[in-house]
Design a protein that fits this description.
Layout: H1 19-32, E1 37-38, H2 39-48, H3 54-67, E2 70-75, E3 78-83, H4 85-91, H5 100-122, E4 123-130, E5 133-142, E6 145-154, H6 157-169, H7 171-183
Antiparallel strand pairs: 1-3, 2-3, 4-5, 5-6
Length: about 180
């Protein structure tokens, strides 16, 4: 019978199991990304990529806040984290303890998360149940005015989720593609 370790649940081979390593990686991400990063984004990115356990990441964030290596502020009901000078100094050469492949995977996922959050601010997605499916309406706004509004049918919740995720990855590309097909 295979043993189950709750604290390593979801962590892939090569992932991080020690809070010191996780803390170093969190500081690294905060230093490398030039955009607000919420504590929830960090937890989701590291857990969804199989880099670290969600609960270990939560504990690491708490410890970094207590030690003064990071600070936080709240905006729009999200806690955003910031690296302090103390955290930058502590990071120093320690970042090399984290494998480059792990750093790159975490950074790539964090940048994608930041882009999705930014895109979500400029877009709106409405989902309305109709018949046996859903009508999904995508909006791209500039200030208070819709630049684009398009509605598509989705057969089930899974399709709705995929459509929303793909739209939020790059709504400008979708808008540009639609516009180009009409202006040919």
């Amino acid at each position: 019978m295979e043993s189950f370790d709750a604290f390593s649940s979801g962590v892939e081979t090569g992932g991080l199991f020690h809070t010191n390593e996780i803390k170093i990686l969190i500081c690294y991400l905060l230093r490398k990304i030039d955009a607000p990063l919420s504590s929830e984004q960090i937890r989701e990115v590291l857990a969804s990529e199989g880099i670290a356990n969600y609960f270990d990441v939560s504990e690491s964030v708490s410890e970094l806040l207590r030690s003064g290596n990071i600070t936080s502020d709240f905006a729009e009901q999200n806690e955003y984290l910031h690296l302090t000078p103390r955290g930058t100094e502590a990071l120093g050469e320690l970042v090399r303890e984290i494998p480059l492949s792990v750093r790159e995977r975490a950074l790539s996922a964090a940048l994608e998360s930041v882009a999705k959050a930014r895109n979500a601010e400029q877009t709106k997605i409405d989902v309305e149940p109709i018949g046996s499916g859903f009508m999904v309406t995508f909006h791209i706004a500039d200030a208070n005015e819709d630049l684009m509004r398009i509605s598509l049918y989705a057969a089930d919740q899974n399709q709705v989720r995929k459509m929303k995720d793909n739209f939020l990855k790059d709504p400008v590309r979708i808008y540009s593609g639609i516009l180009a097909s009409f202006i040919v």
